[in-house]
């Protein structure tokens, strides 16, 4: 299996990060931190509840923004082929369950979109973007992908970017999960 690690560094990557955070870089081979988050119907999803196959954690900055919409719709359009391979997709943003519901319904997303409204999971995974555009100190998720093996809960793929305008390499992700 091809295992890849991509990380786009920026010169101001650590500016304005909360110094109280206990996050660490999660790397390939590390155990994925477990979490419980609410979906668009306010139902709890726990990462460790997935026992077989793989789970794609797709962190995105803002529901309804142009690149986030393209990314989530790209996962939606490939989900049918992924379901046959026992692949789960979880979209994760800091938006409220209510905003995520409008976003998911409008774009007919066929996978759970989870709300990390208190920003604990983006801190656990160390994917905090300290500001979104001109919204200084408005912490959101960096666009990032983690693929987790549900049998042992280990990370088998990681991709993180500091640039919210860059999409993940979907072909590369499909190669990893094949």
UniProtKB/TrEMBL annotation:
One of its GO terms (molecular function) is oxidoreductase activity. The lineage of its organism: Archaea, Nitrososphaerota, Nitrososphaeria, Nitrososphaerales, Nitrososphaeraceae. The keyword Transmembrane helix does not apply. Keywords: Redox-active center. InterPro entries: AhpC/TSA, Thioredoxin-like_sf, Thioredoxin_domain, Tpx_Peroxidase_subfamily. The keyword Translocase does not apply. Residues 26-178 form the Thioredoxin domain. SUPFAM superfamilies: Thioredoxin-like. Transmembrane segments: none annotated. This is Alkyl hydroperoxide reductase/Thiol spific antioxidant family protein. It holds the Pfam family AhpC-TSA. It comes from Candidatus Nitrosocosmicus arcticus. It comes from the Archaea.
């Amino acid at each position: 299996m091809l295992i890849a690690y991509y990380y786009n560094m920026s010169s101001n990557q650590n500016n304005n990060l909360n110094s109280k955070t206990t996050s660490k870089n999660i790397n390939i081979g590390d155990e994925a931190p477990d979490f419980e988050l609410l979906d668009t119907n306010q139902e709890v999803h726990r990462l460790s509840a997935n026992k077989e196959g793989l789970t794609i954690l797709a962190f995105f900055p803002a529901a309804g923004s142009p690149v986030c919409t393209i990314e989530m719709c790209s996962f939606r359009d490939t989900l049918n082929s992924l379901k046959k391979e026992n692949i789960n997709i979880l979209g994760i943003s800091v938006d409220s369950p209510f905003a995520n519901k409008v976003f998911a319904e409008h774009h007919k997303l066929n996978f759970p979109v989870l709300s990390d409204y208190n920003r604990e999971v983006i801190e656990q995974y160390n994917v905090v973007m300290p500001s979104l555009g001109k919204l200084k100190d408005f912490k959101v998720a960096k666009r990032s992908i983690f693929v987790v093996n549900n049998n042992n809960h280990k990370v088998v793929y990681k991709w993180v970017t500091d640039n919210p305008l860059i999409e993940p390499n979907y072909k590369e992700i499909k190669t990893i999960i094949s």
